[in-house]
Amino acid sequence: MSPAGDLRARVAATRWYHTIDLGGGIVTPGWFDTRATVSRVPLPASLAGLRCLDVGTWDGFWAFEMERRGAASVTAIDIDDQERWDWPPAMRLARAAHDSRRYVEAFKAQSAGFALAREALGSRVERIDLSVHDLSPERLGEFDLVFLGSLLLHLRDPVGALDAVRSVCAGEAVIADAVDAIPSFTRPRTPTARLEGIERPWWWQPNRAALHQMVRSAGFEIVEATGVYLLPRGAAHPRPDVRGLLREARTAQGREQLIVACKGLPHAAVRARPLVGPDR
Ligand SMILES: C[S@@+](CC[C@H](N)C(=O)[O-])C[C@H]1O[C@@H](n2cnc3c(N)ncnc32)[C@H](O)[C@@H]1O
């Protein structure tokens, strides 16, 4: 088999979250297509000479993007075993009672896509199995630029995670996370968050104002903020049952799923600088 044919076969045999252009016409079939949001996220155009960190990298899309922008080095962290995610206790209990194939599949190690993309791109990004909660300057040193994407919604303590990010951020942090779209527009100045934490590993759904408040309360000042934008589904995302979702549209979660199905997952992003105080 030719090298391109071999790569194509390996890509097809791997589960992907990110849609990554590996060159030669080979694009990974991701769950989401973050390529569509690159122009919205306030990542500096040039990262030349900077030491960068990607938090919760999954297949590494944003880590590779930082490398492409000239970073001197990129470190990427993630949790290899999904069993160590912040699963809601209610879900763990439900799993113990009705263990199903769905969860067994979901707990598979997820570093295979990253390793394959890294090899195909000839990347030098270093991936480390580390939780955001365990970030510290003693463990990894400090970074000029920290990127964190679509992770806070999966954490029980998003402000604690942002505080850990601040502890290693010597320059700027770019945070691009999911927001609850409708209250972002109906309550633009009132930080509110919808709590899930029962049926899936999703916790707080902040409106845009609450995302800003989380970042500020973790000790950052926001220097740039986007409006709400949409992260579109990728080729591997299951096709939504729009009719079924319409029936659920009377609940906030149902309305959000309808928006995701039709348009994509609502996000907002900020570029922020750590406040300097006695703990740094
Ligand atoms: C929805 S994906 C987002 C991927 C990527 N950051 C992006 O913006 O496209 C969430 C990622 O966060 C990782 N994750 C979950 N809990 C984590 C934790 N406590 N520390 C670090 N990464 C975590 C997951 O394994 C997954 O790779």
Feature tags:
alpha/beta; eight-stranded mixed β-sheet; 280 residues; 22% strand; single chain; two-stranded antiparallel sheet; 11 helices
Description:
This protein has 280 residues and is α/β, with parallel strands linked by helices. The protein has one domain (3-235, 266-274): Vaccinia Virus protein VP39 (Rossmann fold, 3-Layer(aba) Sandwich). It has helices spanning 3-12, 61-68, 89-97, 101-106, 112-121, 137-140, 158-167, 181-186, 208-217, 242-247, 252-262, and strands at residues 21-23, 26-27, 51-55, 73-78, 126-129, 143-149, 169-178, 193-195, 204-206, 220-225, 229-231, 265-274. The strands form three sheets. Strands 3, 4, 5, 6, 7, 10, 11 and 12 form an eight-stranded mixed β-sheet that branches. It is globular and about 50 Å long. The model has no long low-confidence stretch (mean pLDDT 91). The structure holds S-adenosylmethionine. S-adenosylmethionine binds next to helix 2 and strand 4.
CATH architecture: 3-Layer(aba) Sandwich
The CATH superfamily title: Vaccinia Virus protein VP39
Helix and strand sequence = HEEEHEHHHEHEHEHEEHEEHHE
Could you say how many structural domains there are in total? 1
Model regions low in confidence, pLDDT < 50 over at least 5 residues: none
Biggest sheet statistics: 8 strands, mixed
Ligand inventory reads:
S-adenosylmethionine
State the total count of DSSP E strands: 12
CA radius of gyration: 19 Å
| Overall 3D form | globular
- Compute the number of helices: 11
What share of residues is helical? 25-40%
Instruction: Please state the average pLDDT score.
Output: 91
CATH topology: Rossmann fold
- What class do helices, strands and sheet pairing give? alpha/beta
How far is it from the N-terminal to the C-terminal residue, by CA?
55 Å
